[in-house]
Amino acid sequence: MADEPDNDAPDTEPEQIGDGPVAPAAEAEATPEVDATPEVETTPEADATPVAEATPEVEVAAEADATPEAEATPEPDDAVPEAEAAAPAPPAEPVEQVPPKERRRRARSKHTDARPSRSPEERHAERLAERKLKAARRRARRLQERAKKATHRVAAPAPEALPPVHAPVEGTRRVRQGIVVSDKAEKTITVRIDVARRHRRYEKIVRSSSTVHAHDENNDAHEGDTVRVIESRPLSRTKRWALVDVLERAR
After folding, report:
1. What angle, 0 to 180 degrees and rounded to 10, lies between the N-to-C axes of helices 23-30 and 43-72?
2. Of the candidates 63, 91, 107, which is a domain's last residue?
3. What is the pLDDT of residues 86-123, one digit of tens each?
4. What SS3 class is residue 188?
């Protein structure tokens, strides 16, 4: 029959192109009985089908491999702004620390408004007016502070009296008798006090004298009078005594 395949078909079968499976051809060579079956006609189609199906996969894989490369390599124009955006900003310049006095001096040096020329009398008058204004401000400030302190003193409670540390005890003042040797000074007399006492060891009478200045308010005592003086508070650089009375007048 003309439709039956030739027994030599497997020998004359064209070589397969691609990486398709070759298992059907090997089975056809090993089993000659299957060559007479009509299933052999589909062998080329079966062999070609995998090749046709494999080709799109290769193309898709190639496209897949090429697509990331195209996306991974951006255009140079787009890369420049991104690099500039990612670059850190330059550090700010440190601000110069200027003292207040230097700052005011610089501000005055930048001042360009020239004041009109004035005569010495006008400048003196301006200085006087400025002094009067400052004096008035100081006076108002002081009055305000004084009023504030007075208000605080009135509002504050009275302080409690502290108990004395030592009792006010007045000591016994010494009284001496002597002879006036000088009354030349005003309200002051010079009195010589004679002392006679027995020595502790030798029991001999020892006589000594001392001179003191006493206060005489009325200039009552005169030279040669016998007077009595009493110890008092310091009345001058040398006076520590005061006249009590005159015991005997000089003859």
Report:
1. 160
2. 63
3. 666 667 777 788 899 999 998 888 866 667 788 999 99
4. strand
Q: Comparing C-alpha atoms, which of 192, 184, 185, 176 is closest to residue 225?
A: 192
Nearest to 178 by CA among 226, 210, 211, 219: 226
Total domains in the chain come to: 2
pLDDT, average across residues 55-61: 44
Q: What are the Cα distances from residue 142, in Å, to 146, 152, 154, 205?
A: 6, 15, 18, 73
**pLDDT, tens only, 136-190:** 999 999 999 999 999 988 888 888 888 888 777 778 999 999 999 999 999 999 9
DSSP, collapsed to helix, strand or coil, labels residue 163 as coil
Range of the domain at 190: 175-248
Does 179 fall in a domain?
yes
Q: Which two tokens stand for residue 148?
A: 């504030």
**Residue 122: both structure tokens together:** 């006008």
pLDDT at 131 over 90: yes
Question: With a threshold of 0.85, does the pTM exceed it?
Answer: no
Q: How many helices, marked H, and strands, marked E, lie in the chain? A: 6, 5
The pair of structure tokens assigned to 211 is 């001179």
Burial class (CB in 10 A: 0-12, 13-18, 19+), 12: exposed
8 Å CB contact between 194 and 207: yes
Residue 135 lies in a domain: no
Torsion angles phi and psi, residue 70, rounded to 5? -65, -35
**Residue 49 above 70 pLDDT?**
no
Does the residue 145 lie in any domain? no
